[in-house]
């Protein structure tokens, strides 16, 4: 119970003078109160028409004991529970409808009642109630005393218990939800209240009354606090500063670090602000002058900076560089060539402020003679123009023959150019002269000279007249039209104007249509453009001239308008010439599913319906083709068990609409994938009447599948001895261990596949063609089989996916090159396969001849046996293995001299440092000689082996075809339930091998697992990069506050306008592109073969995108030309493709720079590994709130560490730091991205 409650109880009640209304009177007048209000006493507490237990309060119930017990007292108790105090504001009314409050008190003016109680207490009047009832709660009779007793003094005591002192910082707030603090103190601004006690004298009466208690907790008033701070914080911090830095010249922004050897009492103290006040005389420096001078305290900051740091740095710069043109971004490096006092000085910023703002004016005036001796440049712009820019322009015109300087052009460092201009970004300067008026004084003065050089003042007019219009006229003359593809670039040959060579005219034309570029020139030359047939509305032209005529021709030739999705208009006379090569199937699919060409389709809808255009393709296929075919099948066959390979024949027994329909594939899709689910559900009764079976039908090739698996098991036993012998040989020669193991594995695979093909061909004499593993990119030599989509015996269509292979970069769908029956699977799931190795075999047959497959299998081929013998010999050379690979080593020879090899069968394997290549036979024949030995190094193009094309294939054993008499037996066995073939469990490449358990006190095991070839190859590449590149890393801190604020403010509007969310990564990519254009070395690579550095004039950035298989690094092309909107859309598209597994190899190949975002995994700081042949990689890390000096104040800001790892062979330290600093500055101030700064 608080002391003020006790005081209220013992306080005598004063008797009112004459004229004062007695207790119980109907009116209570309050003329002056702390709340500046007046009100009347009630006549009655509540009305009688209350509903649901609530009452309609008209006035205060100050003298009603029933109202006190039912409403007022429970409301005060509830207020205390919810607010943790009883300082009830006068305007507070118990809220209606809130079940947390007593229902009887809803709407009661509790604040006015509390004010009446306080006034009666101050006046010494009677409350009309037993005072002991108020003792049950800590009612706030005196607000000041109540705050002191309930909040401030308990908070000071608790602060002292936790910290050992009561020096509360002004910004301190009691933490919420803290178990160390009482709940009613949570959120209290204790620091602000303590500051007001010291500075304004708040709570003076309470401070005086509790002086002993405050002394116990060491509470300091203003004077004593300053003295103690000086002794315990300022002087010890200055001593450590001198000890750490060798001087006592404290900068204004310096803050005491929170670690040793700095005094713990001074941690996070703004020492720079205190030193500034000492120098200005506002803090007692005079009283402690001797103590400060002993520490070497610097009283005149500017004089000390000039004498000890700036002037020595300028003298050193002139001595080392030979001039005094200090770049604005230059920082004094920390090495022995520079004065130690100047290390880390931003001398470039200092020099710029001397020129533009007159800083250090006293020192500059005094030392002007010395500065002129050093060659200090007072007028930077005049010096740059006369000594660097104009000579560079004159040299450019002399060497190039014109003065059209590309924006990205940088003056090279060679003898043809003035040495003063080396490294000058003259392209950026020229663009600034045109668009922003840079160097206006110098340009006006030298205008005549610039015009003599052919300086282009209006870039757009020059581009239009000299390059774009001639290119359009030439395109129309050569192509016969003016429909320029978006990707078209003017080739560098004599048919085209030389001025236009390399012009991306397709991009220009697209921007004219969509963005209105070159609007002035287009309006002026509109007549000439129309003469050329320039297409203003591309979609209208495509529809009228190409798409609609193609649809009409399709209907005329085919008799219907069901255009297959893969259909392309052929280039023959039956079709309109304008439509040749048009992917009309893709267009029709887009019309149905995405609503493209909606304007034209709506206008010509009647004509499309006359052609029989199918709006709902699935409904039309079901009603007009599939259901009639199923009904006919049931009528002719007596059942509805449609074989998977069955195709509707083109004869009169079948509906004409269904001719050529692969009804077996359709039925399989209905059963396994739920295709045509809407139609199947609707027509379920009819399908059941036809006897449609949902069970998986048995296959005629089950015996083939079982024989293939048996052959593989036998092959493993046959090859095991050879593999063990090679491994034993490798053990004797550890340097070749990996190659020997790989050779043994490859020989085993080759033998298995040859045996599989032999067994498979015993079931069919129809020639089968092996389909090899396709190329998956320059740096990918093998992959892993992850899924078979077709089983042996299935009919596969041309371009249908058969198997899925995954690499460490991409998932590849391997498709059938032609239609036929899948004969054999030549690799198991989880098996690694090399590029070019046989993967599966297909018996080739036409789409409409599937029912005749069995008959074709019984025919005995005699063409090969009858082939005449010849003496044609063909020499096979070492194939090309990539642009940068000139030779390789023979690691495995798979065929012996005299063996018969088939076309596209691997003969030997050549391995390089990047890829392993199967060298296949281009033709079938007998291997007559091998021109190189195992482990020989062979060059690309050199002879490798010789094949006799005239040799005949050895005879193969064939199982005799069944006679017609055996047909009934076959029919009998057909009824027996037979399980479909299932792929056997794949054998692991290397099983996990547990080592022998340890003996002794600890019984622990270890497990060894053989590294996969993919992992081995990746490790080799990483180690090669580490061995070849001179990798160096630099770091920078970056403030993301402005960027995050921009995203929070405009993110919703951005998403509504562009359909994608505004993220942070797009800003990093844009900032990186700008930085790489300013520092071309960071966007280059070394060609070691040519001994050249290759500079890219484009910026292609690899960026990390999450997928189900992990993180992939697709490439965003030409980032320097993309806006933030374009980058966000591209990131969204790539992310969706990564999740769907539809990224193509082209999306992952290339890249000139990489952005690695390890912050998503929580990394605070890391260094990244270069991705060869790139020269730099940016590391983006986690965002953390850290105290930072912002606008002169220490505030929490979202900060991030950036890292740049670069190849020091190309990029020197200055360039690397400049790139990273440029990116950090652009992110910290997003306006730089807009202004290209």
UniProtKB/TrEMBL annotation:
Family: Belongs to the 2-oxoacid dehydrogenase family.
Pfam families per the UniProt record, alphabetical: 2-oxoacid_dh, Biotin_lipoyl
Name of the featured protein: Lipoyl-binding domain-containing protein
Comp. bias intervals (Low complexity): 953-977, 985-999
Region (Disordered) location: 953-1005
Keywords: Lipoyl, Transit peptide
Cited CDD domains: lipoyl_domain (cd06849)
Domain Lipoyl-binding: 768-843, 873-948
Lineage: Eukaryota, Sar, Stramenopiles, Oomycota, Peronosporomycetes
Natural source organism: Phytophthora fragariae
An example Gene Ontology molecular-function term: acyltransferase activity
């Amino acid at each position: 119970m608080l002391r003020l409650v006790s005081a209220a109880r013992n306080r005598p009640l004063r008797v009112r003078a004459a004229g004062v209304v007695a207790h119980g009177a109907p009116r209570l007048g309050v003329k002056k109160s702390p709340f500046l209000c007046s009100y009347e006493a009630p006549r009655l507490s509540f009305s009688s028409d209350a509903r649901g237990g609530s009452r309609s309060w008209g006035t205060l119930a100050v003298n009603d004991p029933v109202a006190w017990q039912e409403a007022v007292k429970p409301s005060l108790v509830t207020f205390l529970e919810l607010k943790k105090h009883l300082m009830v504001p006068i305007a507070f009314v118990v809220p209606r409808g809130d079940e947390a409050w007593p229902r009887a008190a809803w709407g009661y003016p509790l604040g006015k009642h509390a004010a009446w109680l306080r006034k009666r207490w101050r006046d010494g009047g009677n409350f009309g109630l037993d005072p002991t009832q108020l003792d049950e709660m800590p009612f706030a009779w005196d607000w000041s005393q109540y705050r002191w007793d309930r909040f401030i003094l308990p908070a000071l005591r608790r602060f002292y218990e936790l910290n050992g002192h009561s020096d509360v910082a002004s910004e301190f707030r009691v933490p919420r939800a803290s178990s160390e603090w009482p709940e009613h103190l949570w959120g209290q601004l204790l620091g602000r209240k303590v500051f007001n006690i010291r500075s304004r004298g708040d709570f003076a009466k309470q401070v005086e009354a509790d002086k002993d208690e405050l002394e116990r907790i060491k509470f300091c008033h203003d004077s004593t606090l300053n003295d103690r701070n000086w002794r315990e914080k300022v002087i010890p911090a200055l001593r450590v500063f001198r000890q750490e830095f060798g001087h006592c010249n404290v900068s204004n922004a310096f803050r005491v670090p929170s670690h040793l050897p700095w005094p713990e009492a001074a941690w996070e103290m703004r020492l720079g602000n205190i030193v500034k006040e000492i120098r200005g005389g506002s803090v007692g420096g005079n009283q402690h002058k001797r103590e400060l001078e002993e520490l070497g305290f610097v009283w005149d900051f500017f004089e000390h900076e000039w004498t000890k740091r700036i002037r020595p740095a300028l003298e050193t710069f002139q001595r080392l560089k030979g001039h005094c043109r200090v770049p604005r971004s230059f920082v004094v490096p920390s090495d022995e060539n520079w004065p130690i006092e100047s290390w880390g000085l931003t001398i470039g910023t200092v020099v710029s402020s001397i020129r533009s703002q007159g800083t250090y004016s006293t020192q500059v005036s005094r030392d002007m003679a010395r500065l002129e001796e050093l060659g200090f440049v007072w007028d930077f712009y005049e010096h740059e123009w006369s000594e660097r820019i104009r000579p560079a322009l004159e040299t450019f015109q002399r060497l190039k023959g014109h003065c059209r300087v590309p924006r990205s052009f940088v003056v090279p460092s060679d003898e043809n150019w003035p040495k003063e201009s080396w490294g000058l970004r003259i392209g950026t300067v020229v663009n600034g002269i045109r668009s922003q008026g840079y160097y206006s004084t110098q340009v006006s003065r030298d205008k005549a000279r610039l015009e003599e050089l052919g300086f282009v003042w209006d870039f757009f007019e020059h581009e239009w007249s000299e390059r774009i219009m001639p290119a359009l006229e030439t395109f129309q003359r050569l192509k016969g039209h003016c429909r320029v593809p978006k990707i078209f670039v003017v080739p560098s040959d004599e048919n085209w104007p030389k001025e236009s060579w390399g012009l991306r005219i397709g991009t220009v034309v697209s921007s004219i249509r969509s963005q209105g570029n070159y609007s002035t020139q287009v309006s002026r030359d509109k007549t000439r453009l129309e003469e050329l047939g320039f297409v203003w509305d591309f979609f209208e032209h495509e529809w009228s001239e190409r798409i609609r005529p193609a649809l009409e021709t399709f209907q005329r030739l085919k008799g219907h308008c069901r255009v297959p999705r893969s259909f392309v208009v052929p280039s023959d006379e039956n079709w309109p010439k304008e439509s040749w090569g048009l992917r009309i199937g893709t267009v029709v699919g887009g019309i149905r599913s995405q609503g493209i060409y909606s304007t034209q389709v709506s206008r010509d809808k009647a004509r499309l319906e006359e052609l029989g255009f199918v709006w709902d393709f699935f409904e039309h296929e079901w009603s007009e083709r599939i259901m009639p075919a199923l009904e006919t099948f049931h009528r002719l066959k007596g059942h509805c068990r449609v074989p998977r390979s069955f195709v509707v024949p083109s004869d009169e027994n079948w509906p004409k609409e269904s001719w050529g329909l692969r009804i077996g594939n359709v039925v399989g899709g209905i059963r396994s994938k739920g295709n045509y689910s809407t139609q199947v559900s609707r027509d379920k009764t009819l399908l059941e009447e036809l006897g449609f079976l949902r069970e998986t039908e048995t296959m005629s090739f089950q015996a083939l599948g079982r024989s293939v698996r048996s052959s593989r098991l036998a092959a493993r036993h046959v090859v095991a001895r050879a593999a063990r012998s090679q491994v034993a040989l490798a053990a004797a020669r550890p340097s070749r261990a990996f190659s020997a193991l790989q050779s043994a594995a490859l020989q085993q695979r080759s033998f298995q596949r040859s045996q599989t093909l032999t067994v498979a061909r015993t079931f069919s004499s129809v020639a089968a063609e092996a389909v090899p593993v396709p190329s998956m990119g320059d740096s990918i030599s093998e992959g892993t089989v992850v899924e078979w989509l077709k089983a042996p015996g299935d009919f596969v269509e041309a371009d249908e996916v058969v198997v899925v292979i995954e690499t460490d970069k991409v998932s590849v769908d391997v498709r059938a090159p032609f239609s036929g029956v899948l004969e054999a699977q030549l690799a198991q799931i989880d098996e690694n396969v090399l590029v070019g190795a046989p993967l599966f075999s297909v018996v080739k047959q036409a789409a409409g001849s599937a029912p005749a497959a069995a008959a074709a299998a019984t025919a005995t081929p005699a063409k090969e046996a009858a082939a005449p013998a010849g003496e044609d010999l063909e020499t096979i050379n070492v194939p090309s293995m990539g642009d940068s690979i000139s030779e390789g080593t023979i690691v495995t020879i798979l065929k012996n001299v005299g063996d018969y090899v088939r076309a596209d069968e691997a003969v030997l394997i050549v391995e390089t440092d990047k890829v392993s290549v199967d060298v296949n036979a281009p033709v079938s024949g007998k291997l007559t000689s091998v021109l190189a030995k195992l482990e020989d190094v062979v060059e690309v193009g050199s002879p490798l082996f010789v094949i006799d094309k005239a040799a005949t294939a050895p005879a193969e054993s064939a199982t005799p075809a069944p006679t017609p008499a055996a047909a009934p037996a076959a029919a009998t066995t057909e009824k027996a339930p037979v399980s479909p073939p299932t792929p056997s469990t794949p054998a692991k490449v290397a099983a996990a091998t547990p080592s022998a358990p340890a003996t002794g006190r600890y019984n622990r095991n270890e497990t060894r697992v053989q590294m996969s070839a993919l992992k081995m190859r990746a490790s080799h590449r990483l180690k090669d990069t580490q061995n070849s590149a001179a990798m160096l890393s630099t770091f920078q801190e970056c403030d993301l506050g402005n960027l995050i604020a921009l995203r929070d403010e405009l993110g919703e509007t951005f998403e509504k306008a562009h359909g994608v969310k505004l993220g942070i990564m797009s800003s990093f990519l844009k900032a990186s592109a700008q930085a790489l254009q300013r520092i071309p070395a960071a966007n280059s690579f070394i060609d070691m073969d040519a001994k050249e550095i290759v500079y890219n004039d484009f910026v292609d950035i690899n960026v990390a995108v999450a997928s189900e298989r992990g993180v992939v690094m697709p490439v965003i092309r030409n980032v320097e030309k993309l806006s933030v909107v374009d980058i966000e859309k591209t990131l969204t598209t790539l992310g969706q493709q990564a999740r769907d597994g539809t990224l193509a190899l082209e999306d992952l190949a290339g890249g000139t720079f990489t952005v690695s975002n390890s912050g998503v995994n929580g990394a605070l700081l890391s260094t990244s590994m270069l991705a060869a042949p790139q020269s730099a990689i940016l590391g983006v890390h986690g965002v953390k709130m850290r105290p930072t000096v912002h606008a002169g104040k220490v505030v929490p800001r979202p900060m991030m560490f950036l890292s740049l790892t670069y190849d020091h062979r190309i990029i020197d330290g200055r360039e690397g730091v400049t790139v990273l600093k440029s990116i950090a500055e652009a992110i910290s101030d997003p306006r730089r991205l807009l202004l290209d700064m």
